[in-house]
Task: structure prediction
Amino acid sequence: MPSRRSQLGTEPPASEITPETRYFRRREFIRNTALFAATATAVGGGLRFLVRGRRVTDRERAQTVAAARAPLPIAARSEYAGGEALTAERDVTSYNNFYELGTAKEDPAANAHTLRPRPWTVTIAGEVRRPRTVDIDEVLGWFPLEERIYRMRCVEAWSMVIPWVGLPLADFLARLEPTSRAKYVQFTTLVDPEQLPGQRRRVLDWPYVEGLRLDEAMHPLALLAVGLYGKTLPGQNGAPLRLVVPWKYGFKGIKSIVEIRLVERQPTTTWSAAAPNEYGFFANVNPAVDHPRWSQATERRIGELHRRPTLPFNGYGAEVAHLYAGMDLATYF
Amino acid sequence: MRLDAASAPLVAAAPAAAPSRRRKSPHPWLVPGVVAGALAPLVSIALRAARGELGADPIAQALNELGLVALILLTASLTCTPAKSLFGWTWPIRLRRILGLLAAFYATLHVLTYAVLDQGLDLSAIVDDVVKRKFILAGAATFVMLVPLALTSTNAAVRRLGFARWKRLHRLAYLAGVVGALHFIWRVKKDLREPAVYAVVIGALLLARLATQIPARLGRGRVAD
Result:
């Protein structure tokens, strides 16, 4: 016997031998194991479905970044972010608020393929010498494009540093020759539920409308952007034409603009109409005036772990504070 | 498997003096299966965090997912009693305690993520948040309600408190569900669809509970469940 055992050599150790009771209950054991696995899978799958913790892999994000963006000729570059590190391009193009393409942060990048940035026209209307509709490519020929690195502070207390490509709004407006009655500029986003599927639901009162006082719009920091990171804007960032006003909360930066209208009265802007106690017309970045539901004193720079203090006018106070001299910024928030 | 003491009276219709050799649960896979499935979101968050796949604002993503799982599990725990009283199903009752504990576990992780990672343990900022912002106050209140419920979830606690008092205390779970849903509603900027679903479900469960409780009370004058 002993010699035979050693010859076999493959006999399992006693610890691995199935206990007799378990052996006789193996059917029950197999059944319970299967039911355990099925329960765990159902519960785990159900939670996954409800939480929709969407996996945004780097590869998917890289594809988003690469999708259909042409390089732009850049005539001048300037840096207005105090030398701070740029936010990664994949974050700038995958973490967006653009409710016309969905309300979750990752929705716009996922749905942007429906937006067709060409052909595209912009209607110039209201108090200007020659109202007309111009093709976006014609506008691009009017001025040499500039790269501007700006901080971007979202009203939700996160921020980025973004290298925009665009043209100064002041130059654009001067070319339109506003009349003496023009006091405000009103911008309107495209309405087309085919291209902007988020508009099938009335989350906001479409079209999205934003506005600036004329002196704000004529400030040299205000930019009409057509690109970022040296290439044309991706849909989720507001292709083909969007507003960038770096001293104001990000929602002032209206995307996918189809109309620019010079007006006499302050326009009703979308968020200020949707929740007047939470979002004002001016929406200047102001750490001293909290959003009713969260503090604006600090922000999280995307890519960083710790919050940092928010700066008045997003750090552009030296350039723009004079526009609001004498105004109570807690009233005109 | 243990039949939790709290649920015992609910299944009193079943032969109370079941033969003692029948101590094993008829579904030994049920609670372990639910626990394993319910831990999947945590494993998923941890894996994605380690690989840098939680998106551009990973702290906000983890915070939101943990909070949502807590609310889902709390809602699920509230379905157990109505499932028994409306449909006569007894197996969900076996899950009530573990679902509540898992909800409290996720709520704790949610609160820790907020306090440690989001706010960097800045106590003055946290206190400021809680007193000034109703959605954070609602969240804090929900957590404060879940803690005593989790601590008194053992059979020993039921014996210590006495069943009637224990049951009265554990009705707080409904209030926690309602306030937890409010926390979600008040947080959202504009798109209310998702939080509204939880509010409606929890409201319906509360109504179902009241609907079965009140007639029973008026009816036979015995201590109704």
About this structure: Chain B is about 75% helix and 0% strand.
